C-alpha cells in the first residue's frame, strides 16, 4: 500500500453508484483526477487564461509561460533527450496518426515492411493499414506465444533489411503484457528502421526514460495518467521530425505564408496547429507533479501487487478464464466467465457499484487470436486498494448466481 492515503485526493471516490460505494476498476480506459489537477485547471482559467504564443498582453505571456513550463515538466517526466521533440497532441491516437501521416506517407516506400504485433490497439494498427495501402508496403506481425507475450525469436527474423518502421505497444491494454521495447528498439535500429512505441498504458504506470529506451517516437495520453482529456504527447526525434511534413496546418505551426506557399515554424510548434489544449496541458503538468510526488516506482509496485492479487483470485474462481502472462504484468486483468457475456457481467457489477470495462477494447484482431468476442477487464491505479479486488471477486459471485 502507498504510505499516503491518496484516496482522499480523489473526490469522485466518495460518490455512491447505484447506492453502493464506487469501486473504480476502469483506469485503463480513463483515470480519475486528483484535487490538485482539478484545481490547477480552474486556477489557470480563473487567473491566467489567454491564448498562447499570440498575445503581447500580460495574460497572453502568463499563459504562454505556463504552457511552455508544462512542456518542460512533461519532458523531464519521460526523460526526453530534447525538449523540442515533445509535441502536445490530443492523445495517443492523434500522436500515432501524426506519425503515420507525416512520416509514414513520406518515408515508407513500396516494398518496405511495417512490423506490428497482433496485440495493438486499433489506434496503432489502422493508421499503418492506410499507410501500407497508400505506399504499397507490407504489414508484418510479430506472433504471440500462448501466454500472450511476444515471440522475440520471430521478431528477430521479421525485422529485416526491408523494414522501415516497427510500431509496438509498450503495455497491452488487454493482456497486460509488458513488451521488451528496449530489445525491439535495438532490433529496429540494427537494420536502419525507425521505431514507434505506444505508451498509453505504460507512462501512467511505470518509470519511463526515453533516454534509456531510445525510441524514435513515443506516444501517450494525459487522461490515463490523472490528467485531463484532450491532451497527449508525441515525442519524436527532432532530426526525424524536421524532415517530416506538417500534419495539420494553420496557427502557430506557420512561419511565413504567401498566397501560393508557406513555410513552417521550428519544432515543436511545426506540429501544433491551431489553438492548443492550453489549460489541459497545464492540468497534465499538475498530474505529472502529483505522480512524481508519489514516485513511479511505488506506483508500479502497487499496480503489481493489485494485479497479482486479482490474477490469483480470479484464476481460483470457477469457470473463469484469465488472459495474458502471469508475471511481468501491467495494470490490467482481462477475463471471461463461462456462460456469461462480459457485457452482462459488467452490467451486474455496475449494480454493485463496481466499474469494469467489457468489450473488444479496440483490439478486435487480438479478440480473434483469443477466440472470443469480448473480455471483461479490471484495471488498477494508485487509488485502488486490495479491498477493491475483493469487491470484484464478491461481485462475480453475485453475478454468477444471477446469470449462470
Ligand atoms: N485504450 C482502453 O480502455 P486515446 O484514446 O487516444 O487516449 O488512447 C488510445 C489507445 C492507444 N493505445 C493503447 C494501448 C490504449 O490502451 C489506448 C486507449 C482505452 O483500453 C480505450 S479503447
Labels describing this entry:
Aspartate Aminotransferase, domain 1, 404 residues, alpha/beta, Aspartate Aminotransferase, domain 2, 4-stranded antiparallel β-sheet, 7-stranded mixed β-sheet, 39% helix, 16% strand
Can you tell me about this structure?
39% of the residues lie in helices and 16% in strands. It is of the alpha/beta class and 404 residues long. The protein has two domains: 6-32 and 295-403, Aspartate Aminotransferase, domain 1 (Alpha-Beta Complex); 38-293, Type I PLP-dependent aspartate aminotransferase-like (Major domain) (Aspartate Aminotransferase, domain 2, 3-Layer(aba) Sandwich), CATH 3.40.640.10. The longest helix has 21 residues, at 296-316. The two termini are 35 Å apart. The structure holds ligand C6P.
Question: How would you summarize the topology of this molecule?
Answer:
Layout: E1 16-17, E2 20-21, E3 23-24, H1 35-47, H2 58-77, E4 86-89, H3 92-107, E5 113-116, H4 126-135, E6 138-141, H5 152-158, E7 163-169, H6 181-190, E8 194-198, H7 210-213, E9 217-221, E10 232-236, H8 238-243, E11 254-257, E12 262-264, H9 278-294, H10 296-316, E13 320-322, E14 332-337, H11 342-351, E15 354-355, E16 357-359, H12 364-370, E17 375-379, H13 386-403
Parallel strand pairs: 3-15, 5-6, 5-7, 7-8, 8-9
Antiparallel strand pairs: 1-2, 4-10, 9-10, 11-12, 13-14, 14-17, 16-17
Helix pairs in contact: 1-9, 2-9, 3-4, 10-13, 11-13
The structure holds ligand C6P.
Amino acid at each position: 500500500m502507498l504510505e499516503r492515503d491518496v484516496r482522499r485526493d480523489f473526490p469522485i471516490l466518495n460518490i455512491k453508484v447505484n447506492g453502493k460505494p464506487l469501486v473504480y476498476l476502469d483506469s485503463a480506459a480513463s483515470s480519475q483526477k486528483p484535487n490538485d489537477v482539478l484545481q490547477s485547471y480552474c486556477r489557470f482559467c480563473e487567473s491566467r487564461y489567454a491564448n498562447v504564443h499570440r498575445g503581447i498582453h500580460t495574460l497572453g505571456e502568463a499563459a504562454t509561460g505556463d504552457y511552455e513550463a508544462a512542456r518542460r515538466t512533461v519532458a523531464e517526466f519521460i526523460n526526453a533527450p530534447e525538449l523540442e521533440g515533445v509535441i502536445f497532441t490530443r492523445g495517443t491516437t492523434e500522436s500515432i496518426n501524426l506519425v503515420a501521416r507525416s512520416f509514414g506517407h513520406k518515408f515508407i516506400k513500396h516494398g518496405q515492411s511495417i512490423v506490428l504485433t497482433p496485440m495493438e490497439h486499433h489506434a496503432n494498427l489502422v493508421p499503418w493499414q492506410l499507410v501500407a495501402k497508400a505506399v504499397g508496403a507490407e504489414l508484418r506481425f510479430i506472433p504471440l506465444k500462448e501466454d500472450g507475450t511476444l515471440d522475440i525469436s520471430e521478431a528477430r527474423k521479421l525485422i529485416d533489411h526491408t523494414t522501415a518502421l516497427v510500431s509496438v505497444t509498450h503495455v497491452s491494454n488487454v493482456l497486460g503484457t509488458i513488451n521488451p521495447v528496449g530489445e525491439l528498439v535495438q532490433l529496429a535500429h540494427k537494420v536502419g528502421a525507425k521505431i514507434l512505441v505506444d505508451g498509453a498504458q505504460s507512462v501512467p504506470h511505470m518509470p519511463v526514460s526515453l533516454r534509456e529506451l531510445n525510441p524514435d517516437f513515443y506516444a501517450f495520453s494525459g487522461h490515463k495518467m490523472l490528467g485531463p482529456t484532450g491532451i497527449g504527447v508525441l515525442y519524436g526525434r527532432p532530426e526525424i521530425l524536421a524532415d517530416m511534413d506538417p500534419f495539420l496546418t494553420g496557427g502557430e505551426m506557420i512561419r511565413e505564408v504567401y498566397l501560393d506557399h508557406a513555410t513552417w515554424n521550428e519544432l515543436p510548434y511545426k506540429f501544433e496547429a491551431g489553438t492548443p489544449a492550453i489549460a489541459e496541458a497545464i492540468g497534465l503538468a499538475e498530474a505529472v507533479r502529483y505522480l512524481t510526488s508519489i514516485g513511479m516506482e511505488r506506483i508500479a509496485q502497487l499496480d503489481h501487487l493489485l494485479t497479482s492479487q486479482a490474477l490469483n483470485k480470479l484464476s481460483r474462481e470457477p469457470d473463469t478464464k484469465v488472459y495474458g502472462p502471469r508475471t511481468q504484468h501491467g495494470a490490467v486483468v482481462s477475463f471471461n466467465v463461462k456462460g456469461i457475456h462480459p457485457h452482462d457481467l459488467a452490467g451486474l457489477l455496475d449494480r454493485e457499484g463496481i466499474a469494469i470495462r467489457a468489450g473488444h477494447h479496440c483490439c478486435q484482431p487480438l479478440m480473434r487470436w483469443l477466440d472470443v468476442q469480448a473480455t471483461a477487464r479490471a484495471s488498477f491505479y494508485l487509488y485502488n486498494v486490495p479491498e477493491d479486488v475483493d469487491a470484484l471477486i464478491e461481485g462475480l459471485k453475485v453475478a454468477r448466481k444471477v446469470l449462470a
